[in-house]
Amino acid sequence: MVFSIGSYYPANSYLHIFDPVLKIIMLVMLTVAVLVSVSPYVIGGALILLLAGSIGAQLRMSMLFRQFRVWIWLFVFVVILHLFIGGGEPVVSIWGIEIGTEGLNRGVLYGFRFIVFLLSAYLLTATTSPNELTDSFIRMLYPLKIIRLPVEDISLVMSITLRFIPVMYDEAIAIKTAQQARGVEFSKRSFLRTERLSSLLIPLFFSVIRRTADLNDAMLSKGYLPGMKRSSYFQRDVALSHLIVFILVTAGCIFSLVAL
């Protein structure tokens, strides 16, 4: 399988054994701090922290850059969009449209925010197995069982949805390769034509439906019934070092929000 955002990368690093609930809360708080803050120091600090976490999790940088190369066009689009609508003191004029310093700063700000969001999702899914994600969602949503919310089922749906992203990506690559072998061209100029686009999307749609049916049969064969109480084989204890790291990161996020 081609490793992509949403795939689990097995390793024995500190982040892999880190408590998944604390890991999710830290990454959520980090992205919220970046979303609210307009300080380049906060965004830069978050990027450095996430990149250090990726290196510490034994994730290869070449693999990381290969995945983000797919999203670079969206980063460029965000920057260019704010160049033309941001305003500020004019720096240059293109086709009668003035580009200001404020638009440039805002475009770079929003672009790097987008990178932080992607890197957070990448780091979470690469260092947390599907079973750990499901168990974490159950633990985090457990108080909602008071109002009779099906916490286990909701957590399972969220986990399956997250794990279907790399499956669909791999399936799209396989279908594209097969269609190219049959003579279909997917060049940049011809890809958006209806017949070429449908030759990829229609088989992908039926493949997802087939995989969904196979997953349903597999779950039924293992005795899965919606609404039934399920136990966990693994009992996880939070280590002291995990709590210290969690407190430090949380304090840093809160300080960045208060200092606005």
Note down, in words, how this protein is organized.
β1 and β2 (97-100) form a beta hairpin. This protein starts with 13 loop residues before the first helix and ends with a helix. The chain is mainly alpha-helical. The protein folds into two domains: 1-129 and 237-260, no CATH class; 151-226, no CATH class. Strands 1-2 form a two-stranded antiparallel sheet. The model has no long low-confidence stretch (mean pLDDT 78). The protein is 68% helix and 3% strand.
What are the segments in which pLDDT stays under 50 over at least 5 consecutive residues?
Answer: none
Number of H- or I-type helical stretches: 10
Largest sheet: 2 strands, antiparallel
Average pLDDT over all residues: 78
Gyration radius over CA: 22 Å
- The strand line-up of the biggest sheet is 1-2
Spatial gap, N to C terminus: 44 Å
Shape, per Cα inertia axes = globular
